[in-house]
Amino acid sequence: MQHLEKGYVIDEKYTVAMFLKEGMCNENYRVLDDNGKSFFMKLFDMQRVPELLVDSEFGVKEIAVYHKLQVGGISRLHTDGAVEIEGKRFCYLITEYFGGELLSEVISRKEILDAQEALRYTLAIAEGLKEMHAAGLVHNDITPSNIIFTEVSAKAKARIIDLGHTCEPIDGQPPFFTSDLDPFCRAPETYNNVYNMAGDVFSLAAVAYTMLTGKMPWQYDISDPADVEKIRDTLRAKRIMTPLEISEKENLSEHFRNAITQTLKASEKKRMTLEQFVDAIQGKMPVKKADVESEKRKMATESRHEREDEMRVSVEAERRSGNGFDGVAGMEELKKMMREKIIFVLKNKDLAEKYKLTPPNGMLLYGPPGCGKTFFAEKFAEESGFNFINIKSSDLGSTYIHGTQGKIAELFKKAEEKTPTVICFDEFDALVPNRSGIDNNNLSGEVNEFLSQLNNCAKRGLFVICTSNRPDKIDPAVLRTGRIDKMVYVPMPDEDARREMFRLHLAGRPCENIDCDRLAKLTEDYISSDISFIVNDSAITAALSDSMITQELMENCIRCNRPSLSREIVKSYERMRETFGDTVAGNARPHIGFK
């Protein structure tokens, strides 16, 4: 729905000149400033912006990315803000507006580009990516539709646009939706929630291939774009059985051609860096071309080896050393329950047998992000002296059919070999999503495997701690007693907990006359990670002048750093607490499943 008509004035300065297009939760416009200069504006309807894309400081994460990224090869942020239109809140960003042509339009017009032209374009895109990577960010969506060329001279000038998927390198659930990523340009490892600079290099090679051939690498007609798992498996099979070739053409150097095909077939760990790829396509670094048939045999062999390697879980149960619960500020009731209901039972086998005591199978720690859920699990392992395994969703990811199911089974088998063992599953909602919303049988099979392994695992010497910011996304069958027995809400730290956090984080650092009571009062609504940041940032400032960390320094840092979570987000978690209950607080668990 278009909210702004031509002539509408934003922020008393920018006048709408033209509506461009509508996105999932935004509208794009060309606007003019007081001097008649054109700018691009993206207007976000905050009622439609999903929680995943919300930023506590700038309203929308895409705007936050623009603030981090002010480099030449990217469309630059001019200003941003928030407005109320017809009683609804909108956030907006305004960037430079430049004339030019999308690369997708160039390819549509020319079908196949001249080799030298394709090389110039590839180098221009790489220049923008280089600046982005230097800022510690990954674009994650390099496609012909997200590149615009402002000049097509001997040295092409490219602008990388659409930063809706841009983030820091991540190994886990990404902070954006992935359903709109181009399947032919996204790197294979992104299906396992691995997003890093190597993925951008793959995408750049895919774009170069498209310019030279007029088609995407391993392109085929997709019948159901929503069936991501089927697309992933089909593309993997094509990569194994169909090595890419680029026909010889005038001015197309062998090193340019080989660099593209080698980059597209290589696994993440064997892929060239951006710098190596740039050198390779210019002939500064030799890349050999393999015979097609031998390449096919090699890829099939590598695939078998990769499958065998991938089916192994690359984590081990290890005993952790540390100060245990002494390093945890607050959470006294939770610590008491863990000592009495779990550690005592597992460490006193004779008494457990005498009184027929069975420790709980597992526990879900849920609540706002950044409040120390995973940290608590680590400290529990230290306190208990048990072996510990920390699992992220990417640790169990597999690009093979049923591959993740095999990894889940192997994980529990490994854990049983070194009992007693604590297994901590981070972002549990990503591992066991509600099957009612899953069309793919593979994912349902993975949830079923978890159900099987969780059943009475305490009797096998295993205790499972799961963490999640979104328990409402977890399959209800997993949350039944006998699998996950306890639901514990980990709230925002209260004043006492914040005081203890400051004391713990400042311990051992050069500081004087720090009033932790006052700091705790000043940091209402701050989460654990906020407090850790404030102490570290103050310490860095003090270190630069080799001086003491002072109360004034700490308070200045607090004034300059607002809480990470908005009041609205905190309230949404309090409502979630009412729905799911809290074992520690004594709230009854809601009924889950059949009565």
UniProtKB/TrEMBL annotation:
Record-annotated Protein kinase domain positions: 14-285
Keyword GTP-binding included in the entry's annotation: no
Gene3D superfamilies the UniProt entry points to: 1.10.8.60, P-loop containing nucleotide triphosphate hydrolases, Transferase(Phosphotransferase) domain 1
InterPro entries: AAA+_ATPase, AAA_ATPase_domain, ATPase_AAA_core, ATPase_AAA_CS, Kinase-like_dom_sf, P-loop_NTPase, Prot_kinase_dom, Tyr_kinase_AS
Region of interest (Disordered), ranges: 289-317
Keyword line: ATP-binding, Nucleotide-binding
PROSITE patterns, alphabetized: AAA, PROTEIN_KINASE_DOM, PROTEIN_KINASE_TYR
Residue ranges of the TM segments: none
Keyword ATP-binding in record: yes
Entry GO MF terms: ATP binding; ATP hydrolysis activity; protein kinase activity
Origin superkingdom: Bacteria
Family statement drawn from the similarity comment of this UniProt entry: Belongs to the AAA ATPase family.
PANTHER family listed in its UniProt record: AAA-FAMILY ATPASE, NUCLEAR VALOSIN-CONTAINING PROTEIN-LIKE
Protein name (record): AAA family ATPase
Native organism: Prevotella koreensis
